[in-house]
Amino acid sequence: MSVESNHGRGATRNATPSRFNLKQHLVDGDWLDQVDALDGVAPRRTTVTIEKPKSILTRNSSPDIGFDRSVNAYRGCEHGCIYCFARPTHAYHDLSPGVDFESRLFVKPDAAKLLHAALSRPGYECAPIAMGTNTDPYQPIEERWRVTRSVIELLLETRHPFTITTKSDRVLRDLDLLVPAAKLGIASVAISVTSLESQTARLMEPRASAPRKRLEAVRTLNESGVPCHVAIAPVVPQITDHELDHLVEAAADAKARGAFYLPVRLPHEVAPLFRDWLEQHFPDRAGKVMATIHSLRGGKDNDPNFFSRMRGQGAWAELLKTRFEKAIRRYGVPQSKFPLRRDLFEQPAGAQMRLL
After folding, report:
1. Domains and CATH numbers, the chain
2. Does this model's pTM top 0.70?
């Protein structure tokens, strides 16, 4: 039996997707603990499976989210962010929210065609489409598959408003599309920067762009006329919260159009994965980190309730809010708003796509 090392991945193990009574994916745990110490063990390779969904627009009615529709070109994310709240979705595929989430990926190459059909329907009402709200639209496999780019091409053609959230400077490869979209007032970008310390960022987000490259992308986008914001998301107490002021200062230096922050969320299988990660990388403060998260989340690992899930509750939540508000006033960075034009939208002409 061949065994692959998880070295360089975000999750320390493959968690069992037990909520759906799916089978265990782990081989013997003691064996996996020793894998990286063995000679000749191959690193875990990323696999990509083509997915053919019947629709691509995901709708939501959450009152604490500023969009009601989104497009996700990929399932799973090779960036491997340990705190990613999208990890539990992999359990629906009988895969682990752990290492499988960041190495067993799914691509939707027909995303733009499906979106074309959705925008062409009689009675379609235009509102901003969000990309990057589940998994990153500019994760490494975008370089080959270019699904995100094909979606942006369609949105620009139809003058449909959209937002992008990413942790990658690969977004700059689509400047030729984003600049004209921004001139029309239909495009906005948010780049997530969680830490300025390269070692911390590497541990939390092992395959995302380095913080310096993300901030350079913020600067380039804004200097090119594309409104780009900095998302300090998530803030991990006792690990990155001390950087909050410096991150706002860095956003100001990169000419960010705005900034916002979100405390870490640990839904479902994310919580045990995060605990294991803490024990491996921050054993000296693991208990303190979780105790602070509990103080933010009403004594639990996670608070799923609308509004409070985005800001937390209690003294720690108030402290973060106060510090952030003081920082944005000090450095002249407004809280992020994403006003985009909807009146320019033109439904796609004909049954076939012109650009794809």
Report:
1. 37-331 (3.80.30.30)
2. yes
